[in-house]
Design a protein that fits this description.
Elements: H1 7-19, H2 34-45, E1 56-61, H3 64-82, H4 87-94, E2 106-113, H5 130-148, E3 151-155, H6 161-168, E4 174-184, H7 193-196, H8 216-223
Helix pairs in contact: 1-5, 2-5, 3-6
Amino acid sequence: MNKGFSEAERKAVYRAIRERRDVRRGFLPDPLPDDLLQRLLACAHQAPSVGLMQPWRFIVVRDRQIHRSVHEIFREANAEAVGDFDDARQALYTGLKLEGLLEAPQHICVVCDENARQGHGLGRKTMPETALYSAVCAIQNLWLAARAEGVGVGWVSILHPEKLRAALNIPSGFVTVAYLCIGYVNDFLPSPELENAGWETRTPLAELVSFDRFDDRWRTRSKA
């Protein structure tokens, strides 16, 4: 029987998961060395994918003009988002640091080919959205590997997809799944930044697990 990893190796895996952070500040200016960037992308590429379709595509963005263009897309979307909250929550929102687009030395845009022929459609007839889920698995792989390497990653979702598509010349048929800031950072926070800022608290695991049937408590929670 395979005994799995050593105790030290297991602890390292669990530590990377526990200490992974969505980084928005503290990026250092130098781009990642090419060999390190390739290692991180290789980890992403080793993610599971339905039908082995490997629908992910990675656009590494180092052009500072594009960084500025994407930052403008963020600024516009962020200004619109402020109006979604009441006064107290709005004040908290405007004080949050939600991106590191101008600070990070490089970005990675992850796009998904939802209709990729690779994989011959296996597993997608009844759940075509699994192509997107596969791309997200690749992002998580990259994120955990980056944390193990001391590299910060921040996912910027406050962006208009069509404007981002235009900025990066992404054709129709490809979905923009994630826009990531990536680079070495000064430090990693001991707990998530949104938790530190009082935006939200982590739900205990026991409230999110049921056995054999859906827990009706979740229905009430989703409507709160």
